[in-house]
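Quick entry, no commentary yet.
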Amino acid sequence: MSVRPGDNGPGTPDDPSAALRAAQEDGDEDAFRVLYRAVQPNLLRYLRVLVGDDAEDVASEAWLHIARDLATFRGDLDGFRGWAATIARNRALDHLRQQRRRPVSSEQDEQLAEVPAREDTAESAVNAIGTDEALALIATLPRDQAEAVLLRVVMGLDAAGAARVLGKRAGAVRTAAHRGLRKLADLVDTDPEIRRSTGGVTQTRPPTLKEVR
């Protein structure tokens, strides 16, 4: 199965959930393209924070893996997003190892308190500014917080889905996301340059996690 640009074929479902079933059950390439268009933009944003300018290449590798193993996937569209994010994350970490570079590690949060994730704060903090600026801000967070915010807000996964991607418990992901979102909201509220950027999309290239010290 390959991903090619173009219009959907006759009878191809436009709904990503229906497209997932058609791609799995019938190997429908047009349905797979619908699925790709639904997931790729946010997957690419996630990878941009992990590997920067190499995100497109890593995403291509991830989609080859996804296409190859799609028949083995079991679950709904939300589960597919999490599965795709897991594959993309693994490809990103492999890429960093091959380049002899690794994302900056952070202390593991062992406090598994069930803290609300404050998605409303996340949406206001991330959506109030341009995409590049938002990713740049997220990349300044500690790695566990950055990935939790990316998976929950950008990829749209719930705490359990994000936890499966990261190999952590849902409580740890909620805590990391909560802390990261508070920091983002504080930055948006207090930094005058960020406030000025809310009027339009900036052209700032987001730093990657491996660049943040």
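second:
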Amino acid sequence: MPSRTRVPERATAQPSPHRLAGVTSVRLALPPAIGRRIGRFDRAVDAAVAKKLRGRPAVDQVFYTASALGDFSLLWHLIGTTRALGSPRHERQAVRLAVSLGVESVLVNHGVKSLFRRTRPTWEQHHHHRLRHPSSSSFPSGHATSGFMAATLLADQSHHGWPVWYGLATVVAASRVHVGIHHASDVLVGAVVGTALGRVVLRVWPVS
């Protein structure tokens, strides 16, 4: 009886987290060409950050601190509470900000993120930094949505202070790419969503 030559099974390589990040509902929901462009954009931004910024002590300190302060919208609650001590109008704004941040957190973290189960980038925590690494979906960035919504609300009737609020929001949002917890596209979409949510709040809850 002739022996049968066993064909070796083809080894299946384990995809890296960066590869997994491309095969998600975010990419599957879009035309393939757009999905590939988003992937290239994310990789290009991450490579530029790694080359130009990561590993520089002063830059790392700024972005890791900003990322930590953005957890649970701590920075924005502190700002709102501090400003509330100044005037009754700021007190009303602080209440609006706190309530809006709570609603935003529920909508984004328990709503939008559950629809887009995007894998986060490969993340390596440096031994001298301590950051909470969330287990939720990467898309969109909650730090970006909360930051830009807060900046939009804080800038209401603040003709001279708006660059400060949007500048802080930009630093907090960008920090998520720097520390390797979000893709750049997560942050950009989060900024747009946060700004839109802020505009909605200004319409439905004006503070005079």
